[in-house]
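Practice problem 4.
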């Protein structure tokens, strides 16, 4: 059954595959870019939050420094003149710490300058008042002067709260999730401040050996209420907030210590001092003892504030580091993803598609009997393709074998086994083709050759010698004519020479040449006998002659050569010659031997 091949697709493999490859690369790129963008945003937020929290911590440190500066200031104003120099130095050191903290806080470039300027002004004013009060002789120093100076320092802290609020609002606006951080730290900062203020309200009058003014009593009560409120607002530490607190204690433990030591014991201390309406004589403790005990009670509150702030900064720095690691890891994964997808496509193209297409081309060539010029490049291919290439090589090898065999069979089919000349069938094919051709270079002329008295040779020397004679005459004729002349065994002891393109006269010349050559050849038999043979030649041919006619005319000529005595050449002038007499008649025929 004849197979019908389907029509070829209009699309090549390359055309089908490349849009998918492009989509795959684009999708991978989008995926990778999406991942990097998302982690990039997270990192941006974490970095921004960490920066804001660090700035907020610096700002709160300055608030704390302003609070802390009041302690040495109070002592300087009320202490004995003998201790003045050393207390002045302490106060100056406290001022230096406040100034340094304010300078660090002012590095937050977004902070409105006027807010900071107002704080600095108020601080200067308070410090001038403190200095003035401290320089006044003790007998001239009124409690009011001291309280005014302290109030001026309170005002500096109050003004500074605008800075703290500004930064906390800024921080919450950029990420509402860190609102609790702002609230907790502001609350702790406030607790520290109001605890200090409470101490100031009590210590200043006792130090000056005065009954506590009503105003101070009211302020103390208000401040205690405020401290209670702030403590209530301070979210309790359930577990830990993360970040690093004290090495030994967790923030929850610091919270508990501050509650016990300050909120319970410290406030109880204050309560005892306030008994009996602030009457100096009724007070439980003198200035020195109260100060020592109250400052000690405040310490855990201060520690809680410091540890909380440090833990928050640590936590946000850690989050920033984590986000950076995630961003770098995502970027690395994204690069690997895009890179490996691109490499995959390149490898697929180079190591699969191209070798497959090459294999396909070789197979197509094989189907069209075109053998590959080189063996398939098996080395360096993947295992499956190595097998395919090896199979192609095997098929190509078999095809090469078959085509060699086919050529041999074809040759055998057209070759005479005894003499190695082409056989009658092949001669007929060539002669027939030449007779049909219109080109003058193809015009066929046939020389028929018959060995004379061959039967006698057989009879006298034996059949094998007869065969030898046939082989040697055949070889001689093959050597004598041109390569493109066809020498064939016509049958038995008859040979034929097909000459194309020559005139009949030239064919006759060739026949004469052959006749002489045969006549002059000596054949030596295997038993050393030398013998000679002759042959008769009939020549015919020409344009527009049918091949069968040419054979017939040549045979007639051969017959005439035989009957004329053998060992000679005879020519038959054909019908065509008679149709075109001028062409052939003008050519003088050679003398026939
Ligand atoms: N040895 C051998 N003899 C062959 C072969 N083919 C034909 N012959 C012999 O060739 C001889 C031809 O003899 P004839 O046709 O009588 O002609 P002749 O003896 O050559 O005499 P003329 O042709 O008249 O000169 C026969 O005896 C054939 O047997 C062959 O392949 N080998």
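Answer key:
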């Amino acid at each position: 059954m004849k197979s019908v091949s389907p029509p070829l697709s209009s699309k090549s493999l390359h055309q089908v595959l490349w849009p998918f490859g492009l989509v795959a690369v684009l999708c991978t790129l989008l995926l990778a870019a999406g991942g990097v963008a998302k982690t990039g945003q997270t990192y941006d937020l974490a970095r921004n939050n960490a920066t804001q929290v660090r700035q907020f911590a610096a700002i709160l440190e300055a608030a704390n420094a302003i609070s802390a500066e009041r302690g040495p200031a109070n002592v300087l104003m009320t202490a004995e003149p003998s201790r003045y120099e050393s207390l002045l130095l302490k106060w100056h050191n406290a001022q230096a710490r406040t100034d340094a903290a304010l300078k660090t806080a002012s590095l937050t470039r977004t902070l409105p300058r006027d807010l900071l300027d107002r704080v600095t002004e108020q601080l200067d004013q308070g410090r001038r008042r403190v200095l003035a009060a401290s320089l006044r002789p003790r007998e001239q120093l009124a409690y009011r002067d001291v309280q005014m100076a302290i109030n001026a320092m309170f005002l500096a802290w109050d003004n500074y709260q605008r800075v703290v609020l500004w930064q906390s609002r800024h921080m919450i606006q950029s990420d509402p999730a860190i609102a609790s951080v702002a609230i907790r730290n502001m609350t702790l900062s406030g607790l520290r401040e109001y605890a200090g203020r409470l101490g100031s309200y009590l210590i200043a009058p006792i130090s000056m050996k005065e009954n506590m003014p009503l105003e101070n009593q009211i302020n103390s009560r208000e401040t205690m209420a405020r401290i209670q409120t702030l403590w209530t607002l301070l979210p309790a530490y359930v577990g830990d907030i993360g970040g690093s607190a004290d090495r030994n204690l967790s923030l929850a433990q610091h919270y508990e210590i501050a509650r016990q030591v300050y909120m319970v014991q410290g406030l109880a201390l204050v309560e005892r001092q306030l008994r009996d309406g602030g009457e100096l004589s009724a007070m439980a403790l003198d200035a020195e003892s109260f100060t020592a005990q109250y400052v000690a009670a405040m310490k855990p509150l201060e520690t809680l504030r410091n540890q909380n702030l440090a833990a928050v900064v640590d936590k946000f720095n850690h989050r920033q580091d984590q986000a950076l690691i995630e961003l770098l890891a995502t970027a690395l994964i994204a690069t690997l993803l895009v890179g490996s997808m691109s490499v995959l496509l390149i490898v697929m193209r180079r190591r699969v598609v191209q070798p497959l297409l090459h294999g396909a081309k070789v197979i197509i060539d094989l189907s069209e009997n075109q053998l590959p010029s080189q063996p398939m490049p098996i080395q360096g291919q993947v295992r499956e393709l190595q097998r395919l290439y090896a199979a192609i090589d095997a098929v190509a090898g078999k095809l090469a074998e078959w085509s060699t065999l086919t050529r041999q069979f074809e040759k055998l089919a057209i070759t005479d086994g005894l003499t190695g000349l082409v056989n009658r069938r092949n001669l007929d094919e060539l002669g027939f083709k030449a007779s049909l051709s219109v080109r003058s270079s193809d015009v066929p002329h046939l020389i028929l050759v018959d060995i004379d008295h061959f039967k006698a040779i057989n009879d006298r020397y034996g059949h094998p010698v007869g065969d030898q004679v046939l082989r040697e005459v055949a070889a001689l004729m093959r050597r004598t004519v041109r390569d493109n002349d066809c020498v064939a065994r016509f049958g038995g002891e008859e040979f034929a020479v097909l000459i194309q393109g020559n005139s009949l006269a030239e064919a006759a010349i060739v026949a004469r040449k052959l006749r002489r050559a045969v006549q002059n050849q000596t054949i030596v038999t295997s038993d050393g006998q030398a013998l000679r043979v002759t042959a008769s030649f009939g020549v015919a041919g020409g344009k527009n002659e049918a091949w069968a006619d040419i054979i017939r005319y040549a045979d007639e000529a051969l017959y005439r050569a035989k009957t004329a005595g053998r060992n000679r050449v005879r020519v038959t002038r054909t019908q065509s010659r008679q149709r075109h007499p001028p062409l052939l008649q003008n050519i003088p025929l050679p003398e026939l031997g």
